[in-house]
Request: fold
Amino acid sequence: MTHAIPIRRDARTDHLDVALRLAACGLPVLPLRAGKGPFGNCRNCTDNACGGRPNMKTPGPCRCQWPCHAWAAAATDPHVITSPAWKTAWRYAGAVGYHPGGAGATVVDLDDAAAVDWARENLPRTRTVVTTRGEHWIYQGTMRSVNGVREGVDLKSTMSYARWLGPGTGTLSALPTVVLALAEKEPTAIRPAPRTVTVSAPAGGGECRHRSPAYLERGIAMAEQRITDAASAVHATVYRTFLAVLSAHGRCGCLTETHIARLFTAAQAKGESPRHCTDAWSNARTALGI
Reply:
């Protein structure tokens, strides 16, 4: 992370080409799905068929003999990045991810304008990357990764991954004490109560396959329970659950804003921010062409 990385944000740039250039600069990379979740990068774990946990500290319940998921799979070796095991993943990747801790860096992920304003008032300036709704502030130095250290602020360093959105602007600064101190707070003690997020339900128009309202109710209840039971990889679980709900109920007009609010409430109870919920829902709809 100490070197300038001469790559511009360009939607036409091939993800594999970007990954190889980042790796040549010492940044461990991995392919990410369209929903920002990681792939299982070995053949046995394609589409997470093994049930692997994307954010695990060790290779998940799969029986791989090497780390194949998320940050544990991030690599700088071009032979690994271009290997047959990764070939399919790059073909369907929606973005390039990287392991900040593996490059000796920490990303302060600011989810919205309020979080950015807070950072500008409280954190020393450093290299900044503009994201969809906020900014990534990147510091030189590693620490443990913690989500939700305050509203709209996640820390990504060791055992975590971030999405590559370009080299950013500004000079890289040393990891400050104020950021280290954020990780010492208990995230669950400062998370806000779930907020109501209004998202339009799909317009429908397709054939309704539901035999009774109870079918939809069971589906929503099961989805809520799946999110609630997530012991790890909450981001990925929320996205996959939203995808499953929309796949089953998103085209016939039966899904209402009340149902969506229930799913968002379950996700926020697990620590997801309103922005993450909205993004996951939007990405799921895009993936299904709804």
